[in-house]
Fold these 2 entries.
Entry 1:
Amino acid sequence: MSDNTTAKQSVWITGIGLLSSLGEGNDAHFKAVSAGKPRNLETERFKPYSIHTLVEPDWSQQISRRDMRQMEPWQQIGTYTAGLALDDANAKDEELCGRMDMIVAAGGGERDEEVDAAILKDGRSANDREALVTERLSNDLRPTLFLAQLSNLLAGNISIVHKVTGSSRTFMGEEGAGISAVQTAHARIASGQSDIVLVGGAFNGEREDMLLLFELGNALHHGDFQPVWSRQGEGSGFTVGSAGAFLVLECADHARKRKATPYAELKSVAADHGPRSPGAAAKRLGSAIASLGSTGKQAVLSGASGCAEVTKEEAELLASNLPDAPVRGYGTVTGHTIESQFPLGIALAALATSKGEFFAPFEASESNSDGTPDSIIVTTVGHWRGEGAALIKPVKDEA
Amino acid sequence: MSKFHDHKGRPIVAVTGAGVVSSLGQGKQDNWDKLTSGVSGIHHIDRFPTEGLRTTVAGTVDFMNVEPRTAAGLSFALADCAAEEAIAESGLGKGDFPGPLFLASPPVEMEWSQRFQLDSEVDDPEIAGYKRLLSAARKNEHEAMYELLMFSRTAERLSDKHGTKGLPISLSTACASGATAVQQGVEAIRRGETDAALCIGTDGSVTTEALIRFSLLSALTTQNDIPEKAAKPFSKDRDGFVMAEGAGALVLESLESATARGANVIATIKGCGEKADHFHRTRSSPDGSPVIAAVNNALNDAGVAVDDIGYINAHGTSTPENDRMEYNSLKEVFGERIHNTPISSNKSMIGHTLTAAGAIEAVFSVLTLQHGKIPPTINYDTPDPDIPLDVVPGKYRDVPVTNVLSNSFGFGGQNACLVLSNDIV
């Protein structure tokens, strides 16, 4: 299923908010990604896993201390980043935020690891584990922790802190949630249903409860760091990265009226999913890319995870279908950011587009780029399910 | 504007199939018979020990035969059951549904039984907590557990089985999720992206920990003695909601496409409205403005006036704050007319099915339109004098209804309203 590329309204990216292991803000990200190397890679604390850890911002720039206390880190990352995007779009206006639509891609919140560990320990010798769980959770859980865990409470916090209240939807489901969020936001604006949408996601990778989830699926890379396309065989898997990525998407007419400057146009988005029999993900991704309507000199920003089989399939597909396009696996630099991965790629593509540049290779297998691309294709292939692609182009008409 | 387009020139969205499971039973017939007879599905919890818990009643669904029983597994089974019924009624191809899936599903985490299992797989007494669980995860294969825990998994299984198209959307807007799933389907059809959509809300997440979490927020009733009487929306002595499980599914189609294939149209979704609240994480703005805006947005979107609404399917959770806020907000929109408009809460009988509630109540709204029968609010023994509503107490009422307003509100400032209609059926 793809959006039609003959949309009624052009969809502009007029605001970008980024916070990750590379730092805070658009300039820091453009510079760090241009340098092509990860930063703040933590290799000891979560051994055998490396993690791209967050550069802590001055939270008070976006979130009051009172509101900070009501959130766990993943909500703080998202709320902070959403604020950056709104500031960047010059959209922190009561009337505007009051009618702004919002779609957030979210996972689950942090658990209280100490409470869980204590219950597990005592559970080993308990006669009645169920009674133990009941008693301990009743006494030890912080009442407000639930709200810091609920998936839709990132959006809820953005409403409270930044007053975005036109609508509020939260999509769940790992990488696919981020793909669907951007696709739906695009469709709303292209069809004339929305004038302006805040869309994005946040992920805190510095959590053992989250690592556990992915290790159960053998999805994590172990040992020394490797760039994504090199993670084959034993090195298969992703290295998580903490990140928030939010975009303000806006109908061109609406942006012109309020004199907002676009970074780029989000031309089209396509997505699909299905079982991962050999070649199936590549076939679906190929169809998605083909439906974007891309022409001219192209480049690809791939959100490839590093999970060996699908990453290899994606590399082969891109080499065969877009042989002249330079490909960059941005997960090498940012880490794999799950729900944020697709919005993050679109943000990086928009920054590159607005500067008329493309990124130098992140690893030996990536070919040099030859001048400025006419358009950038962003891909995200879920480590387990879901394939998405988007087309980013320069805005021709800024008048 | 043709007969297939609405007052704003958008494709009219028809309902051609509906399915439901709740603690009352499986399927529309069983649920409707009990719902109109004022039967409660609330009972003492026997799924897990309740000693020491402040709340010991719930509307769990215990007849689904899911082994091993997990919240994710039960949520899938409930959704699948409702989807089967809805798709069968629509007459659309089995296993090849011609549109996308929008699924409201609970954000389900790892269960304690799974944590204990992982914990037991490691012998080294020195490793503790999540390091120990991670060690177990590295040591042995746990693919089944992993699949169960992916947030996207319930939607993927449903999509694979029923053949829906594209990347399925799993969503959460807390207790408004079911209504949001319907809204997503309506919007996709209106935008012309698809002729059909499968919209489901499901929740099978009544576990010890979920109950404790809501209990710690003082959201649940503690009136455990007579479970059937615990949920008492709009009563003076209401003291919290009753957690419950279930699923509701709707097959939506553009009226044009439904008509072209000769499908039986059972209702239309005339309008949707929403508005987020920035007041507080769990409480509504004291002036009710976001709820008022959500209701007004739904009425405007539907192109109907308050006089056209013949029945309101309330959110009606039975918490002190929700019911008062819902009344105050409706009074702002409806004026004095609100006192003569029948309004009832299905939650008095099925409890609060959380993520599924909006979808289940949309199905019950469709049944209300079809049968010209309004289900009652039960346990209305002590009316709250501050909420002078016609809650259809105790017994169903035979009233032909043309337009229903269905309300859903949730934590995180979520407010979503639907207007369902039978005026062109």
Entry 2:
Amino acid sequence: MSQLDNYAPVGKPALLTVEHLTMRFGGLVAIDDLSFTAHERDITALIGPNGAGKTTVFNCLTGFYKPTVGRITMKREGQDYLLEQMEGFRITRLAGVARTFQNIRLFSGMTVFENLIVAQHNHLMNASMFSIAGLLGLPRYRSAEKEAIELAKFWLHKTGLYERADNPASSLPYGAQRRLEIARAMCTKPRLLCLDEPAAGLNPKESGELNDLLLSIRTDQGIGVLLIEHDMSVVMKISDHVVVLDYGRKISDGAPYDVRNDENVIKAYLGEDEDEDLPPEIAADVGMQP
Amino acid sequence: MMDYFLQQLINGLTLGAVYGLIAIGYTMVYGIIGMINFAHGEIFMIGSFISLISFLILSSIGAFSAVFAILIVLLVTMIFTAVFGWSVERIAYRPLRDSFKLAPLISAIGMSIFLQSFVQVFQGARPKPLQPIMHGGIKLLEHDGFAVQISYLQIIIILLTVGLMIGFTAVIQQTPLGRSQRACEQDRTMAALLGVNVDRTISLTFVMGAALAAVAGLMFTLYYGVIDFFIGFLAGVKAFTAAVLGGIGSLPGAMLGGVLIGLIEAFWSAYFSIAYKDVAVFMVLVLVLIFRPTGLLGRPEVEKV
């Protein structure tokens, strides 16, 4: 039998708990009774073949889908937030879940810097009392604005985008746009950062830089990261914990090394070994001895 | 000849200010939820009625200085009309937001008819006059017995409009509210994920649009001195033309379009035929739609394949 739930890190409490999550679209079962836990200060990778339901999990986490069955609990400052019952914008605001998408969704008409300021909307909106204090330039708003600018600068430096802060977001090269998305998500001050294939389309150098960025977010910022990724070099190198999905079910859960050697995982990715020899004529064509 | 031209320029600018203020409401709503709010002309009409009623109440209370009275009425009209704008969105558009694309459009036309009939029933169908609040003006130059004159009212209208547009641009460009509006305009889903309350942002967009239309309504009441329940239709369609001319979705475009439509109307009436002034305006709409569908300042829409 496969290893399910044999991952229990020491000293890292649970951050996100998914219990018996099921998502049906009509007759199609996209996620089937999925339970897993993402821990604080951990990089948790959600992997699986195409169509395994990984993005659907993200959509349930961020309020796009209401799960058919199940409970998703996010812990923040000793309080439990049930994500499946919350409105989308409150999930970011209260529960501290930030996310990026497979395809880049920056505000392309705004500058790099403005993208990071929009992410701090709540903080600024509260300080500005619906823009009234903002227009009058009251001190309360000034100091909130200053903080927001500092945070934006911090992430601009961290992602190497400082020099391009005033460029339109759409003018950045692809790899930089990916980094900006992560910076923007971090500007919402999340507890959990959900990244949907952040390494897709990156070259090896950029992919290496992304690894460093994610490791630093985990270690220096103490933020939990939940990652969907196909690039196994990224997954195996940086994740602490891997959850494998196939056809909406969890087939393996554990540390990267254990998961890699799990036979269920190998089967899901490479197909079953069907113990059937090639027909002789084809075997001859490809130069195999029957 | 020159002085006649100058006089028409002043008249056209005044008219353009009114159209520009209404056009902003069209363009903002289009920008954020991608629909034409056909009830917006009616919001303008309601604004003019509220301002008329407030003036009558004020004058029955007692004597105020004209400028002071206008300021009070301005505030009252903006607040009450904004409530109408908010309710229209809440009742007629929000429930249909995720419905098919034509549904909110039909709902908007329904809302427009409803508001018109509402005012017709409660205020009567006859035109309502208002005694001129302000008299006099400044003679700019006099030549061969023809005086170029700018009335105090025109000065107030133009200054107020310029002031509002500067303030309004500052809100959109520099405040958190404006940023969240621009964010919702570009990607509503992503904005929500960053913690922006999209529903509230859309509501506030309607409120702001309605407040500006209210100012336009007040100006119309003061300038023409006669209003009825049907003024919203023509003014609304002309302001919509202005928004399209400037490039729908573009705020500076709406302002520019409003001024241009006002000028076209004034000059056409002056040099050609006053009876055909509306035809001239709508010819512009036709020409813009044929030759420059994105408008003067609109960005061409690039469809990604």
